[in-house]
Structures are given as C-alpha cells and as structure tokens.
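To the wet lab folks,

You asked to see what we're planning to order before we commit. Fair enough. Below is the target structure as tokens, and below that is the sequence we designed to fit it. If anything looks off to you, flag it before the synthesis order goes out.
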C-alpha cells in the first residue's frame, strides 16, 4: 500500500485537483484507491459531488470518536475509488483536540489497519502546516508537492521542507518526498519555462516529467462534481493526469 499526502502550504496550486484526478486515474488503471479529505474547505469532497455539511458524516466525526470509518466511507461513482469526506466542522478539530494525547496521530489511530485493503491512499491536506497536516504526515509514507509554475512557486517551500524533516525525525521515519508535480504550466511563456527550470534545479530528479498544463476543463470538472477523465476525457487536463498517473505507478519498481 502506498499512502501519499498531497501537500503545499500555499493555496491554489493544484493540490486538490491533483489528488482528485490522480485518484480517478489510478482507479481506472485497476488500482483500489482511498481518498481522504483532510481540508475543512472540503474541496476534494465537492470535486466528487459529495456535500457532508450538516450530515455528521465526515472525517471530523472519526477524529472525535463519534463515528467509525464504515459509517463515513463513501463509494464514489468511480469503480474502485472510495472517499472519506470532510466538512467545515473539521476546522475546529485543532482546538478541540489540543489536550488529546497523541493528537498528531489520531487519524492513523482511527483508520488503522483498514488502510491496508487499498493499493493507494491519497490524502488532500489543508494549505497550512497545522495539526491536520501533521496527522496526514503520520499516516502517509510519501509526500507529493504540487507546485504552480508561476513567479512565487517556491515561496514557503523551505518551511515545508523544515516541517518534513521534523516529522521524519520525530513521528514518521519512513516518510519521504517522492514527487513534485508542476501544475498550471504554460509552455508558451518564457516565465513558465523559467520557473519549471528553477523547480527542477531545486528538487532535481523528484520532479515528474509530466507537467499539468493550464486547462479550463479542469476547473469546470470540479463544479460538475466529477474527475477530468469523466468530464472531458479528450482534454489536455485528462491526458496530463493519465500520463502523470502512469509515472506514479512506474515508481513502484523503485520504491
């Protein structure tokens, strides 16, 4: 089982889009996949047409010990793809769990061995380095960092890498950064190419060959509650995520 946290403390970089669409592509290629929405904004859940607000059926209830996983788990319309949704109540978890022993590993505690029935567990993290992200990094054994190919792309990445080092030393020695995803790429501009070169210089061989090109269909697919491969299978967005997912599967030989 590969457990991968999609993380970047900078918002709007393609983190949720990548989690949602890589998950769909993995399932389409025969993998059994679990998506975990750990962002109180619940964008990953919305991407699959799931609105858990007010229904007491989100990962927040699991973390508080009010529901078990089977009560919250949703089977999506994509065969082989399951989802544990989020809602805005999750925003209060950091305060409510402040005095809880082992609060950094509470998600791992409640999900436990059930994760092992999946080939891939993909976790969408909030755009911050708080308690929810720490929980994701104790569940995951890999980190993917989606990076927007624009001027401020690497802003804040050094802080993220510092957090990674601390988590690896103190909470999860198996954690590794195994992929950098270049998102919103525009090959027609010199800036796009220059930023991509800078990202490759910074992260070297961790950068995936496939870049996710700017594509309006990716934004549209979210509002329609479906992954890009279902909404617009012939689009650049669909082609890019299929190619990226094949790269991710190919990593299995070296991990």
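Sequence we intend to order:
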């Amino acid at each position: 089982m590969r457990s991968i946290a999609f993380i970047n403390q900078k918002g709007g970089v393609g983190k949720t889009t990548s989690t949602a669409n890589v998950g769909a592509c993995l399932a389409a290629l025969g993998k059994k996949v679990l998506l975990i929405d750990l962002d109180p904004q619940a964008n990953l859940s919305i991407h699959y047409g799931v609105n858990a607000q007010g229904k007491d059926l989100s990962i927040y209830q699991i973390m508080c010990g009010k529901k078990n996983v089977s009560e919250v788990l949703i089977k999506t319309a994509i065969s082989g793809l399951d989802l544990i949704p989020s809602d805005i109540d999750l925003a209060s978890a950091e305060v409510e769990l402040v005095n809880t022993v082992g609060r950094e590993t509470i998600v791992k505690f409640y999900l436990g061995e059930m994760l092992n029935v999946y080939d891939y567990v993909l976790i969408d993290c909030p755009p911050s380095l708080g308690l929810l992200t720490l929980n994701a990094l104790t569940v995951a054994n890999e980190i993917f960092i989606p990076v927007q190919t624009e001027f401020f792309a690497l802003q804040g990445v050094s802080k993220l890498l510092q957090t990674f080092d601390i988590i690896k030393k103190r909470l999860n020695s198996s954690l590794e950064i195994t992929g950098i995803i270049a998102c919103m790429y525009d090959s027609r501009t010199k800036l796009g190419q220059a930023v991509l070169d800078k990202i490759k210089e910074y992260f070297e061989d961790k950068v995936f060959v496939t870049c996710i090109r700017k594509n309006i269909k990716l934004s549209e697919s979210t509002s329609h509650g479906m992954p890009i491969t279902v909404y617009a299978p012939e689009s650049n967005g669909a082609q890019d995520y299929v190619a990226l997912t094949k790269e991710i599967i190919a990593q299995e030989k070296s991990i």
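Structural context that might help your review: The chain has a mean pLDDT of 91. The chain has one domain: 2-253.

Thanks,
Computational group
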